[in-house]
Design brief:
- This protein is an alpha/beta fold and 273 residues long.
- It is built from ten helices and five strands, in the order H-E-H-H-H-E-H-E-H-E-H-E-H-H-H.
- A five-stranded parallel beta sheet has the order 2-1-3-4-5, sandwiched between helices.
- Strand 4, helix 7 and strand 5 form a beta-alpha-beta unit.
- The longest helix is centred in the first third of the chain and has 26 residues.
- The N terminus is likely disordered.
Length: 273
């Protein structure tokens, strides 16, 4: 069968055009948006409430790891902390009564919370319906929190990994884009935990940040990385060199690695333009 050279050239040119177009569309969809809030809105917050689900309460609860990191870096500040964590397994933000939770004295903290961290469902960014629900709930919660003098931070969740049925390479780009845009709409700080997981896996593909049972929830190392990322974001301080090691469960080399990933991720995230 004879095929002319002109025909072959046209086919190659067309294939190249389609590839460039696909890359352009992908880039437009998942281009890294810049966060409007570039750092902590409250200096050294002491009264902090974390609202979310099992992504927070796994592995002795993220708020405990965060509190211990703060105390390890600054014993005086650590003694003054009043942290609370309100979590419901599998919950979305719509499942939480933030009006009641943030009422002074309702859950044992007499003064209003200075900072409330909102963590939504693990798939909140992955469908139009879930995105709309998250935005609506986050906006409603933010109004209540602001009325009581507090600030809001959005906890960017990490992506699923294979063999989870919803794991896709493009998920983290969608998560990143959604949380940054929502945070900008609300004037809220975004905590780039999902990006820290992605960066850690790039640097060390063998590290185990996900629970081996479901490839969704964090492992202890994942919770530690999340805590280090939250610490760097809401306190504006480097976690590198922090002595907290989950009571010897994390060796010094691994802890140092995760601390460095957290610092680099947060710095890079806030440097976006």
């Amino acid at each position: 069968m004879f095929v002319s050279m002109n025909y072959l050239r046209r086919m190659v040119q067309m294939s190249a055009f389609v590839l460039v177009l696909a890359l352009a569309v992908t880039g437009a969809t998942f281009a890294a948006s810049a966060p409007a809030v570039k750092g902590p809105q409250t200096e050294n917050p002491k009264r902090v409430l974390l609202v979310g689900n099992s992504y927070l309460y796994y592995n002795d609860s993220l708020h405990n790891h965060l509190r211990r990191m703060v105390a390890a870096a600054d014993a005086g500040l650590g003694k003054a902390l009043q942290y609370k964590s309100a979590t419901i397994g599998g919950a979305t933000l719509a499942h939480h009564n933030v009006d009641w939770l943030t009422g002074p004295g309702q859950i044992g903290v007499k003064e209003p919370f200075e900072l409330v961290i909102l963590q939504g469902h693990s798939a909140a960014a992955l469908s139009d319906k879930r995105q709309a629900s998250f935005r609506e709930s986050a906006a409603a919660h933010a109004k209540i929190i602001a009325a009581r003098g507090g600030k809001v931070a959005l906890y960017m969740t990490h992506a699923y990994v294979a063999p989870h049925k919803l794991a896709k390479p493009e998920n983290i780009g969608q998560i990143d884009d959604f949380y940054v845009k929502t945070g900008n709409e609300l004037g809220a700080l975004v905590i780039p935990v999902g990006l820290a997981f992605e960066e850690a896996y790039k640097r060390d593909p063998e590290i185990k940040l996900h629970n081996a049972q479901d490839h969704s929830h964090p492992s202890l190392l994942g919770s530690y990385l999340a805590a280090a990322t939250v610490y760097a974001t809401i306190y504006g301080k480097s976690p590198v060199g922090n002595a907290y090691d989950a009571y010897g469960q994390i060796d010094a080399k691994t802890a140092g690695f995760l601390q460095q990933v957290a610092e680099d991720t947060v710095r890079g995230f806030f440097a976006r333009k």
